[in-house]
Amino acid sequence: MSIRSEDANAFLDRLTGLFAAHDGKLEVEGRVSNAGHMLQTAANAESAGAEPCLIAAALLHDIGHWLRAGTPDAQCVDHRHESVGAAFLKAHFDTDVTQPIALHVAAKRYLCTREPEYFANLSPGSVASLSLQGGPMSEAEAAAFEADSAHVHAVALRRWDEYGKMSGLQVPGFEYYRPLLRGLMRA
User: Helices (H) and strands (E) in the chain — how many of each?
Assistant: First the structure.
């Protein structure tokens, strides 16, 4: 086994540990753990026929919340979990995985501007965090977001994210996605 392979496996073990540590803690609107939420989001992406890189992005999109443990209450401060998570993952994954993660909060702001019905259907927690994240985009911000070719994948991730908050939903666990992640990691 090469050093790079060992490093990749060690990183996957670290991710496995993070998911295990957060499984069962009702962190997303008191309905589902953040681990469960990310697993549901990945299952949504997979059932939509998404590319493996987008399934991985869906699976790991909120990992930045865990990396900011011990910081002030998330209800009062935006910790930019999307940037924290993407930065943490970029050493092991290409931008086709990390860029949708980095942009998924901007995608929520964008969708609230472009699709009023999207905002009307946001969960209470998403509405609360939206104001901390800057609220709906201005027209200029939305146009700039659309100019980024990665915005399409970020919007898809955001849609799967919003429907990944169901109490009691049974989806595959983290180990199911481990081979997919390993296949996407830099050699």
Answer: 11, 2
Contact 59, 39 (CB under 8 A): yes
Please name every residue paired with 33 in a beta bridge, in sequence order, or none if there are none.
26
Q: Does 123 or 176 have the greater pLDDT score?
A: 176
Euclidean distance between CA atoms 153 and 57, whole angstroms: 9
pTM over 0.70, yes/no: yes
C-alpha Rg value of the chain to the nearest Å: 16
Q: What angle do CA 139, 119, 52 make, to 5 degrees?
A: 90
List the structure tokens of 19: 């998911």
Amino acid at 87: A
What's the CATH architecture for 3-184? Orthogonal Bundle (1.10)
Tell me: pLDDT of 55 over 90.
Answer: yes
Q: Are 146 and 91 in contact (CB under 8 A)?
A: no
Q: Is the CB of residue 29 less than 8 Å from the CB of residue 165?
A: yes
